[in-house]
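Folded chain entry —
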Amino acid sequence: MRKEFKEFASRGNVVDMAIGVILGSAFGKIVTSLVEDVIMPPIGLVLGKVDFTHLYINLSQERFSTLEEAKEAGAPTINYGTFINTVIDFLIVATVTFFLVRQVEQWRPKKNVVSSVSRRKPCPFCHSPISPRAIRCPHCTSALKGDLKVVIRSGGRKPSKEA
């Protein structure tokens, strides 16, 4: 079991994933700081010196002047300012991740995509290129699968409608 774990842990994709998680965590902290310390203060200033982290709805009957007082008293609150910060944080992470993945995909070599023309096979009757999944040739209309006995009996010609 120890050997299996060592093989699992030393695989390239597991190590890459671990590095990605660590870097993602660090990147998340940077984005959170960007939102809370750089983006939201100017927005709050424009909206009348509002600190979004202090925006909340008090669900109790008591009055509190700050969110911290409400939390200390154990009052139920809806912290929508913190939620707004978190949504902006997510949007930044999602946008950066999108552009990062898009750039990495452009750097990767293109996979050899076999064109549909090269995957064709010749019709056994008219030798025109057809799909390997075809059951009837689109050129000579010969049955390739299913009604093959009828085609063989007719000498490779299209069976007449009278048969």
Summary: The chain has two domains: 2-107, 111-163. Residues 52 and 66 are 12 Å apart (CA to CA).
